[in-house]
Amino acid sequence: MKKLIGFGFITALIFSSMVKAADNYIVNTKVYNNENLISAPILTVASSKEAKFIVDDLYRLSLYRESDSIVKIKISLEKDGKNISKTLAVELDKEVNIYIDGKVFSFFVDRV
């Protein structure tokens, strides 16, 4: 009986770590200003959590799992008392670009 309980506990730990790892993503970001690369932060982001990075201004990036192959990225910037925010769907292993406040952001998302 103890062996069965111990096996169940170990199985639950392995399963929970697999589920947790599946909800973490690596976001390769490139930021261009006038076609010049000005920054390339690489972020590890957990689903439904926020990451922050600075490129001239403070940007907030949130990532939400939509399906097994698609995540939604919300990027926001507060500047001069105004909040600029955009959301886009990103397919895993595909690059997508978005234009915010005179800069082009390129995102490539994959699971950790």
Give the structure's gist in a few sentences:
The chain has one helix and nine strands.
Task: Give a quick set of tags describing it.
112 residues; alpha+beta; five-stranded antiparallel beta sheet; four-stranded antiparallel beta sheet; 1 helix; 62% strand; globular
Q: Please give the count of helices.
A: 1
Return the structural class.
alpha+beta
Terminal CA distance = 36 Å
Find the count of extended strands (DSSP E, 2+ residues): 9
Report the biggest beta sheet as strand number plus sense, adding barrel if it closes: 5 strands, antiparallel
The general outline is globular
Helix content: 10-25%
List the secondary-structure elements in sequence, H or E: HEEEEEEEEE
- Tell me the strand percentage band: over 45%
The low-pLDDT segments are 11-21
**Rg computed from alpha carbons, rounded to a whole number of angstroms:** 18 Å
- Report the mean per-residue pLDDT as an integer: 80
Describe the structure.
By secondary structure, the chain is an alpha+beta fold. The protein contains one helix and nine strands. It has one helix spanning 2-22; strands spanning 24-33, 36-39, 42-46, 49-55, 57-65, 70-79, 82-91, 95-100, 103-111. The strands form two sheets. Strands 1, 2, 3, 8 and 9 form a five-stranded antiparallel beta sheet that branches. A four-stranded antiparallel beta sheet has the order 4-5-6-7, with no helix packed on it. Strand 5 and strand 6 (70-79) form a beta hairpin. The longest helix has 21 residues, at 2-22. It starts with a helix and ends with a strand. Residues 11-21 have low confidence and may be disordered.
